[in-house]
Design a protein that fits this description.
Layout (H helix, E strand, L loop, with lengths): L15 H32 L6 H8 L1 H33 L3 H12 L6 H12 L4 H8 L13 H25 L3 H9 L4 H29 L3 H6 L7 H10 L4 H25 L2 H4 L5
Helix pairs in contact: 1-12, 2-12, 3-4, 3-7, 3-9, 5-7, 7-9, 8-9, 11-12
């Protein structure tokens, strides 16, 4: 029997005090492992070596850093669009599958989580190298006469990041599709709509919260991605996370690196708040329609 105060009068819903108590460890972890270090880092950008906004002025005035920020946004958007285009058919197939087929598809989506991002990125480096299987195949079928440069390019970064982040797009869309009652499709068929029209006018609008949620999740994750761009990209086409690491590890310019973190945090916050005004958070995660 539950202790007094843990349940509401109807005996089913937990009280507000119980919810806060259960959430306390999570909030403590967020504060001490994320908010506190982030606040300290951002304070460095405006307090060292003395109170100043000089480091943010460098970001705004130097066109090199503006190009890095623009490239980061461009790559994150491209990765998100490619992930959406590849994930939507997979999510639809998963939602319409049952039995062993559904188990197999789900395992294929969850399998990447069993290996680290570093391993998956290293695998792409092997595939894209000059003597890799992709170059060998291109030469074997006669498309190219000699190995082409695939590694250390923006294309390699986009392809590898899309592969790594696709599960984060598939799962929210799949959750939204699974919550759509099957009666809706039957009703559309009774009204004379074909499968394509049913999907376009019924299924897709109802799945839009999951699509938007997956898109935002992939986009925001891609903005701060480090391992894949660092291993597969070139110094001439670095992203913001690589630039921050360079300023910290090579130039030892922590205040300027903290300013870059501040700019990236501002961009992420603005994007998140903008979408939260339009879409309910629980629906973006594939909640019920």
């Amino acid at each position: 029997m539950a202790a007094p105060g843990f349940l509401e009068a109807d005996g089913r819903n937990m009280s507000r005090a119980t919810v806060l108590m259960l959430m306390a460890p999570f909030f403590a972890l967020v504060i001490f492992a994320f908010l506190y270090p982030l606040a300290n880092l951002l304070s460095i950008s405006v307090l060292e070596p003395q109170p100043t906004l000089e480091h943010y002025q460098r970001v705004a005035e130097n066109p090199v850093y503006a190009r890095v920020l623009f490239r980061t946004l461009q790559i994150a958007l491209l990765v998100s669009l490619l992930s959406l285009a590849l994930s939507l058919p997979v999510a639809v197939l998963m939602a319409n599958s049952r039995g062993p087929k559904a188990i197999f598809l789900t395992a294929c989506i969850l399998l990447p989580f069993w290996s680290s991002v570093l391993v998956r990125t290293a695998a792409w480096a092997i595939l894209l190298q000059r003597n890799g299987i992709i170059n060998q195949t291109l030469q074997f079928i006669g498309i190219t006469d000699e190995p082409v440069r695939l590694l250390y390019t923006q294309g390699a970064v986009v392809v590898a990041m899309t592969h790594v982040l696709m599960p984060f797009m598939v799962l929210p869309i799949y959750g939204a599709l699974r919550n759509i009652p099957a009666d809706y499709s039957r009703a559309a068929a009774i009204c004379g709509a074909g499968p394509l029209r049913t999907f376009w006018e019924v299924t897709l609008p109802l799945a839009m919260p999951g699509i938007i949620g997956g898109f935002i999740l992939v986009f925001l994750t891609a903005l701060g991605y480090f391992i894949t761009p660092a291993l597969l990209g070139s110094p001439q086409e670095m992203m913001i996370a690589t630039l921050i690491s360079q300023q910290m590890r090579e130039n030892l310019d922590w205040p300027f690196a903290a300013a870059l973190v501040g700019v990236l945090t501002l961009i992420v916050t603005v994007i998140t708040l903008a979408f939260s005004k339009v879409f309910r958070f629980e629906r973006m995660l594939g909640g019920r329609v």
